[in-house]
Records
---
Amino acid sequence: MDSFTPSLAMETSPLGVPVVDIDPYCDEFLSEPYAAHRQLREAGPVVWIPAYGIYACARHESVQAVFNDPGTFISGAGVGLANFNKESPFRPKSLILEADPPSHTKARTVLARILSPKTVMQIRATFTSEAESLVDRLMTRQAAGEVIDAVKDLSEVYPLKVFPDAVGVGDADRENLLLYGNMIFNSFGPRNERLQKSAELVQPVTAWIMAHCQRENLRSGGFGDLIYQAADAGEITHDEAPLLVRSFLSAGVDTTVNGISNAILCLANYPAEYAKLCLDHSLARPAFEESLRFESAVQTFFRTTSKDTELFGVQIPKDSKVVTFLAAANRDERQWSDPDSFDVRRRARGHMAFGSGIHGCVGQVVARLEGEVILTALAKRVSRIELIGAPKRRLNNTLRAMASMPVRLIPA
Amino acid sequence: MVNVNLIDASGLSQTLHVLEGQSLMQAAVSAGVAGILGECGGSAMCATCHVYVDEAFADQLPTPLDTELEMLECTVSDRLPNSRLACQIKLSVLHEGLVVRLPDRQQ
C-alpha cells in the first residue's frame, strides 16, 4: 500500500517526544489557529503530531534553529508534507524553494539580485503612484454608493497590477495567478479535498501559467526577462529559466495579496493603532511588519532531516518531516511581550513570516514595499476602516488567506 | 561576552555586549541600537545592517561571501572598502574590542 493513511502513522509515535494530537489541516484549526499554536508551544520546542507522523516546531527558538541549519533540515525533499525521497513531486521541483546548496545558491544569487533593494529603489515611484491612484479610485466608487470589498477591490487588485507589471506579464487574465497561488500553497499540505478542489480550478489555466514562463511572453527588461538574461550570461541554464520565472508567478502574488488583506484586517480591528498610523505615516512600514507577525500570510513550511539529529533534546531520525509553524513562532510569549496584541510601534523584526536563513523569502523587500505604500496611501485618505460585514477567510493548507472583507473607508 | 564599540553617524559611541556566536546585527537589534535595522532578520537580503568596520580590525573578519558583496551594492549610504553587513559578522572572543561605525542612513 503506497497511499498515506493517518492511522498507520499513529502507531509509530517516537518515545520521549511530547505528542500533540491535533489536525493542523482541519477547518477549525485553519479558521482560528492561535489556541492550538499555544498548545503546540506549551508542549515543547519540538513535538510530535501523530495524525500526520511529523515532528513540529512552534516556538520561535526552534523554528529559527531549523531554518538556520539548512544542512540538517533540507528543502530538496520538499517543503510541504510530502517527502520527495519517498514520493515523486506533483510538479517539477522548484529550483529555489525545493532545492539545497550548491544548486540553490546559484538560483538564489540570480533571484536576489533581481529582487534586491536596488531594484526597489527603481520601482518605488511606480509602486507608490499605483497604490495612491487605486485608493483614490476606491474612494470615488464608494462616494458613488458602491460597497468596497477590501479583499476583492484592493488587496487582490494591487499586487495583481504591480507585480506582474514588474515581472513583465501582459494585462490579460492575471486572475489566473490567484488560482495558481492558491493551489501551490494548498499543495504543501496533505492531499485533501481542499487541494483537490483548488487543483481542479487551476487545471484549465495551467497552460496559461506555463506559457507566461516563456521568454516570448515576457516584456523585455522585466524581472522575467532578467532571468533569461542570467541564462544568456551562463549563470543558469536556459532550461532552468522558465522554472525560475514560475517561482515569481507562484510565490509573488497570493502571498502579498494576503499579507495586505491581513494588514487591513488588523488595522480595521484595532482602530486606535490605525489612528497612530494616520498621525504618523512613517509608521506604515513597521505597521505592515507587525501585521506580518500578528497574522502571518504563510503559516507553515516543512523541512526534511538529511541525517539523524538532535533538536532541543529530541532525537530525530534521518528522513523525517519537520513542520515549522511560522505564525506560532511569531506569537511566542518567550520571544515577544504581549504577543497577542497588535502594536504598530512594536519592533517586530526577527519574526518568522518570511522565514530565516538561506531560504528566507527572496522577494521580501518587494513585499515590504507593496505593504508600505498601500498602508501609506490609505493613511493619507482614510481616517478609519470600518468592517461592515463579517470578513470571510479563504481556508488554505498553508496560507492565512481571505475571501472577502466589506469595509467602509471613512474619508480623512 | 565580546565587547564591541559602536560609533554612530553623529560620533556618539556605545559599548555593545555580544554573546559569542551571535551576529553583530542580532546583538545590535536586541540592544535597541537605532542605527541598525536588520529588517530581513539576517538573511543578507535587505542591506539595512550596513556598518563600517574600523580598518585596524579588517583582517580579523572572514572575507565576505558573494551574497554579502551583492547586497553591499544596495546600501543607501555610501559603500566604502570597509563596508560590511552586521548580520554576516559572527563574533568570537577574537573580536574583543572591535570598533564599527554606523552609516547615517540604512533606508
Note: Residues 24-30 of chain B form the longest helix (7 residues).
---
Amino acid sequence: MVGSFNPTIFQPRWLGSLGLIRAEDAENSTIAIIQAQVADFQTDWFRLQVLQNRLLLQSIDATHYGPLKDLAAGMLALLSHTPVSRMAMTRWFHYKMETAEEWHEYGHKLAPKELWFPLIEGPGLRSMMMQGKRKGVPDGNLFIKVEPSLLVQPGLFVEVTEDFVKWPDPDAEDAKWVPGRLEKHWDDVMKYAEKVAHDLLETLARK
Amino acid sequence: MITLPLNSESVMDQMVTPQSGNVLMARSVLRISAPDTSDENYLVSSPWIDEGSTDGPNKNVHRDIQLDLDPKPVVRPLALDISKQNFRVKALQRWTGHVERVMADSFIAIVSDLTNPSNPDEEVELDIEDVPLGDRALITMGSVFYWSMVYRDTKSGQREKSESIRFARQPRLTEDVVEEIYHEADAITAILESA
C-alpha cells in the first residue's frame, strides 16, 4: 500500500493486543527494526514492513492467504484515518522446466530474438512485463511479469499484480476504502493469478 | 512436456525473495525496499539467454526495465527469512468454513473447497481440540476459519501430512463504533416504522 504511515505503531504486540494476530505469533515474532522511519518484523507466516510512505505485508505460504487479507483489512480498518492512495495484491509462481532447452524455447516464444541478433550478441530475455486490465475490473491495473526463476533452475517466474487506486475521490485522505476493496477483490485476484500463470505455461508449451 | 509447478504453495527452505530482490540477510533487505528505489540491483543467478553466451551466472544486473511504465506496480517483494523452519510445506487442499453450531467438544461448520471451487459446500464436524489454543476463543456461531491439509517435507526426507485451522480475525469494535451501529440501526428502524 502506498500512503502516509506511522511505522512505530506497527508492532507485533500492538497487533496481538488487538486480536489481529495470535498472542503466540506476537511473542515469537522476530523484529528487525522498529523506528520512526521504518518498522520491520516477521512471524512464522508473514512479514510486515512499514515505511513512512509504504506498507508491505507478505507471506509465501498459500494456506495463509486468507489470514493475510484479514490482517491487512483489520489493520487498515483500525487506522481508518491513515491516508492510503494505492493498494496492490500480488502473487508469485516458480515453475521448474524439465530441460534447459525447454526453458530457452519458452524465452524465445515470449521474445523472439530475430530482431535482436543484428543489434546485440547473445540476446536473452531478462524480464518481460505486460500491463492491462482484468475483464470486468476497470478500476484495477494488471501487471504480469515473466522472468527466469531465481529459485528453481531452469525455471520460470511469473508475478501477477493488480493495482488499485483510491476512488471516487482520489484526494480524500483515508484508508476507509481499503478493507472493502480487499474483501471484494482478494479471492478473485488470487484465483485469477493462478489461472494466468497456469494458462501462460500451457500456451507456451503448446505454441 | 511436464512442468513442475513450484508455486507459492510451497515454502522454500531458505531465505527467499519471491524474485526481484537480492537474496540478502534480513537486515540488508531494508535497503532494497526503501522508497524510490526502482533502479535497485538484483541478482540474476541464471540468465535466460542463448546457450553459449559468455554471460556468467550470479551476476548483478542493473534493473532498467519498463521504467517508462506509468503507473508502476506498487509491490516490491521483500526477503522472507524462513531459515528457522526445517521443513517445506505443500498445500494439498484448502477450504474456508463458517461455524454453524458449537457443541461441548466439537463444532459443526459449512466448508467451501478453495482447491476445487466446483465442489459443493459440505457440512463437517470438527474437534475443538484440533483448533490451536490461541484461536479457541474465536469459535462462535458465524465465525469464519481457514482449513488446510498440507504435506510437510523435513530436511531428513520425512513427509508428514498435517492439517491446520486458523480462524479469521477482525478488529475488535470500539464502544464508539458499537454506539454508532446502534444509532444507525435505530434510524433505519424509525424509517421503516414510519413507512
Note: The beta strands of chain A are 2-3, 30-34, 38-42, 47-51, 54-58, 84-96, 128-132, 140-148, 155-165.
